[in-house]
Structures are given as structure tokens and as C-alpha cells.
Amino acid sequence: MSAALYLEGGATGADSKELQIRCREGFRRLLEGCGYNAQKRMPRLYACGSRAATFDDFKIGLAEKAAVDYVAMWIDSEEPLAGLEATWEHLKRHDNWRKPAGATDDQVLFMTTCMETLIVADRGALADHYGGKLQISALPPLVDLESRARHVVQDGLFHATRNCTNAYAKGKRSFEILSKLKPDVLRKYLPSFVRSRRILDERL
Q1: Is the entire prediction scored with pTM above 0.90?
Q2: What value does the CA radius of gyration of the chain take, rounded to a whole number of Å?
Q3: Rounded Cα gap, residues 24 and 38, in angstroms
Q4: Contacting residues for 43 by C-beta, under 8 A, at least 6 apart
């Protein structure tokens, strides 16, 4: 079974190549923690940059689907989800994106509401990565974490790490901590991550 997974992350511009490599590596390490590896079921990962660029690349990949068995994109939901499985309905309402012909809801995997939600969910990984100057109390509560607005999650993470020498920043540092997250911890707090893992288990 072959698969292509288009990721929201990376960048365009002078440093785009390095950030795309780091983005792919961060997600690869996370997926390896879920049991996927180069020999068994690891999808091919594409770091696409912006949200819109990810959708564009996904559509191209979907049109060329004969080359792979499963094509999907893993993107921020931007807002809390009204229905966990109704992904294209959410994208129509939030982004005015039209579902491509032949696409299904299980070809959209969400980080709800953003990649930082994954990071905030794993307090152990955060403590190991940032050390004693991490201010855990500045982070949003774990209860109903996916209902928090993305700016609340992101601002909390920035604030919690502001006194650390490696304070959180999008790009290189964000993908570094992403690679250290524990999937079993994420499953406790993030229904969207549970869904993504279920779908990948079924489709890969």
C-alpha cells in the first residue's frame, strides 16, 4: 500500500528547503512513534508551506492518484470542529474550498485547531524540551483542548516558553518539538489525532 500525505508546514523563500526538510522530519518522527516506518506503511510526506499551497498540492496529487493508493492532506482546522468527520463541510464553511471530485472526508486529517495544539497536549515532552523555565501554568487546560481558539493555544505556548533559551517559534523550533511528542499522550486529549491515526491505520 502506497500513500502520499501533504502537510501544512515549511515555508517559501530563501530558507524554504531547510524548513521543508525539518517539517517532513518532524512529522516523520511523530508517525514513527505511531508505528509507521520506512519498511511498513510510512506514507510519502510532502511539506507544502501554506494552507492554500497544501490544498493545491493535494488536488494535484489527487488527480494523479493512480500512482498511489491513498492521498491525504494534514492541515490545521483553524477553528474548532462542529463535526469531527465532516471535514469537507468544515473546509467549505471556513475556507470556501470546494471538495474535489472523488475526494472523501477521510482524505482530510486535521490538527485541531493548529499544530501547536499537538505540542501543548504533551506536557511531558514540553518539560523535557524546555526545562525548568517552562511556565506550565500559562498553557491552556488540557480539558477540551481542541475547543480552544488557535490564538489562545499559540499565545499560551509563546508565553509559557518566553523565558526559555529556546523559546517557541514557528519553523525550525516548532518542528523540533513536534518530533518529540508521544502519540499515546496525544490520544488522551485530542480526538482529531485519534481520528487521524485511525484513518491512517485503515488506509495504509
Answers
A1: yes
A2: 16
A3: 13
A4: 2, 3, 4, 5, 31, 36, 70, 72, 200, 204
| Burial of residue 4 (number of CB atoms within 10 Å: 0-12, 13-18, 19+) | buried
pLDDT in tens, the chain (204 residues): 689 999 998 765 556 788 999 999 999 999 999 999 866 789 999 999 999 999 999 999 998 876 678 999 999 999 999 999 999 999 999 999 999 999 999 999 999 999 999 999 999 999 999 999 999 999 999 999 999 999 999 999 999 999 999 999 888 889 999 999 999 999 999 999 999 999 999 988
Query: Of the candidates 113, 105, 99, 62, which has an alpha carbon nearest to the alpha carbon of residue 87?
Result: 105
Closest alpha carbon to 174 in 154, 191, 199 = 154
Are 170 and 15 spatial neighbours (Cβ–Cβ below 8 Å)? no
Q: Output the nine-digit C-alpha cell for 76.
A: 490545521
Q: How many residues does the chain have?
A: 204
Q: How far apart are CA 54 and CA 147, in angstroms?
A: 24
In DSSP terms, which residues pair with 108 in a beta bridge? Answer: 73
